[in-house]
Design a protein that fits this description.
Blueprint (H helix, E strand, L loop, with lengths): L11 H6 L4 H16 L20 H15 L4 H12 L14 H10 L6 H18 L10 H8 L3 H5 L18 E3 L13 H4 L5 E3 L2 E2 L2 H11 L4 H7 L7 E2 L5 E4 L6 H12 L3 E5 L22 H9 L5 E5 L13 H5 L5 H4 L2 E3 L4 E3 L5 E6 L7 H6 L1 E4 L8 H15 L11 H13 L4 H18 L4
Parallel strand pairs: 5-10, 5-11, 6-7, 7-10
Antiparallel strand pairs: 1-2, 3-4, 8-9
Helix pairs in contact: 2-4, 3-4, 3-17, 5-6, 6-7, 17-19, 18-19
């Protein structure tokens, strides 16, 4: 980063944007993360530690994405900025789809939350952002260097760029890629007095809608990870259309405990580049999902509104996990009742957000819920959700699922990347124990992990 710019009070992702190398960006972000999380009871996982001797960075990339998701789930601004910054480290110019979840919030942040009076600095930020947008558009698919290196070289004077073989230089300085979008907070629906700055900046601004590039590819990826649920995947992805904004009808995934329903929703969001906000319904006994009025000292917006503001996507996924376990008392309101307005286009497109006293268009938010059973759910919810049964796997699916579990374990522990595939006798032992556990995916993960630990304990020492 140019020393002239270091003193500027820039949001963390924008400061990261100005760095010239991936290694520098990683070291800078690691230090900023430690400072931000100090004393806040959130420890950085070992799996995001970078080892330059390891060539394959995919396990590291997956670990960073999981860490970013955990940060974003807290709904706080500083952690949201950290989450975006960690996602920036995971982009790959050879895979333009990896930019989908990064570019909309990064561009919005650069435009609305970066108060820069230095003309030279503003030009540098805009120039770097244009290069990142070109990468998202597939302009650097043949490059084998990092996005930070590409942006550094491609924003130098043209004479220097021509001499660099790693970066194509025939790309014109294009304006930002403009895709489908929607104004979530219109000028007519806003009351600016007392409105937080984060929301003021959204007044009249178009928020991007994430587009599905290839619906068939999404299904194929999910088939590999969920060979036992291909019919459920077909139903869940039926609404996807190539080159159209992702819009899923309200969906309730129903199946036995441990069947992988929540993970299926998370993986769908990751593959599509959609932000997912998880809301745990277990023992919820109020209507906080719908927001809390400004008349209370702890006023806050609804969960769908927070998902939009955190991600700067107009169509994130809001997942209500274990919806049937919410309390049915109406003494302090009720989760089930507060959900109903968001599941209808007519009411969600003009939702009166009591937490900020403004009218929002939340009709593009995708709502998915999970449940083990639906008997306790009131009829208004059952009428509005499309119900999809997610079956339990069987022993026939064990080899394919065990491979996926090993990949998940490798994302959390880099050392697991070098584990040999499970042998036939190991799968037999796991299969017998798994059958006793009624084929729970959670139990399968524990069984595979225990098998690998036992293998390590028995390995010869040199």
């Amino acid at each position: 980063m140019n020393s002239d710019f270091e003193a500027a009070n820039l949001p963390l992702p924008i400061a990261l944007l100005l760095l010239d190398r991936w290694d520098d960006a990683y070291a800078y972000l690691l230090n900023e993360t430690k400072l931000t999380l100090a004393g806040r009871f959130l420890v950085m996982p070992e799996s995001i530690k970078y080892d330059p001797t390891i060539v394959d960075r995919e396990p590291l990339r997956q670990a960073m994405l999981l860490f970013a998701e955990s940060l974003a789930g807290h709904g706080e601004r500083d952690r949201g900025l950290l989450a975006l910054a960690w996602r920036m480290l995971t982009v790959d110019p050879q895979k333009p789809d990896t930019f989908a979840a990064v570019m909309p919030p990064l561009a919005f942040l650069a435009k609305h939350f970066t108060d820069v009076t230095d003309t030279k600095l503003r030009e540098q930020i805009d120039a770097r952002l244009r290069v990142w947008w070109r990468a998202a558009d597939g302009k650097y698919k043949d490059s084998d260097v990092s996005m930070f290196r590409i942006a550094d070289v491609d924003t130098r004077p043209s004479a220097l760029c021509i001499d660099d073989p790693d970066v194509a230089t025939d790309s014109p300085q294009q304006p930002e890629v403009k895709g489908p979008s929607v104004v979530v907070l219109s000028k007519a629906g806003a009351v600016t007095k007392g409105l937080a700055n984060d929301w003021k900046s959204m007044i009249g601004q178009a928020i991007p809608l994430v587009v599905c590039a290839d619906a068939a590819a999404v299904r194929r990826d999910l088939y590999v990870e969920y060979p036992h649920a291909t019919q459920a995947i077909d139903l869940l992805t039926r609404d996807l259309r190539d080159d159209q904004p992702v819009r899923l009808r309200p969906t309730l995934l129903v199946g036995p405990p441990g069947g992988g329903k929540s993970r299926l929703v998370r993986r769908l969001g990751e593959i599509l580049g959609l932000y997912m906000y998880r809301y745990d319904a277990t023992a919820v006994a109020d209507n906080m999902f719908g927001g809390l009025s400004k008349g209370w000292g702890s006023a806050h917006p609804s969960v769908p509104a927070r998902a939009v503001q955190t991600s700067m996507q107009a169509n994130p996924i809001v997942m209500v996990d274990e919806i049937e376990k919410a309390a049915d008392s109406t003494y302090n309101g009720n989760l089930w009742h507060s959900l109903v307005p968001f599941l209808e286009k007519e009411t969600s497109s003009r939702y009166r957000e009591v937490g900020i006293d403004a009218e929002l268009d939340l009709s593009h938010v995708n709502h998915v819920a999970t449940a083990n059973a639906v008997d306790r759910l009131p009829s208004p919810l059952r009428d509005r959700y499309r119900m999809i049964r997610v079956p339990s796997p069987t022993l026939a699916h064990l080899p394919a699922l065990a491979v996926q579990v090993m990949r998940d374990l490798a994302r959390d522990d880099d050392a697991r990347s070098y584990d040999e595939p499970l042998a036939g006798d190991e799968l037999d032992i796991i299969g017998r124990a798994w059958a006793r556990e009624r084929f729970s995916m959670r139990k399968l993960q524990r069984l595979v992990a225990a098998t690998l630990d036992a293998r390590d304990a028995c390995a010869p020492r040199h």
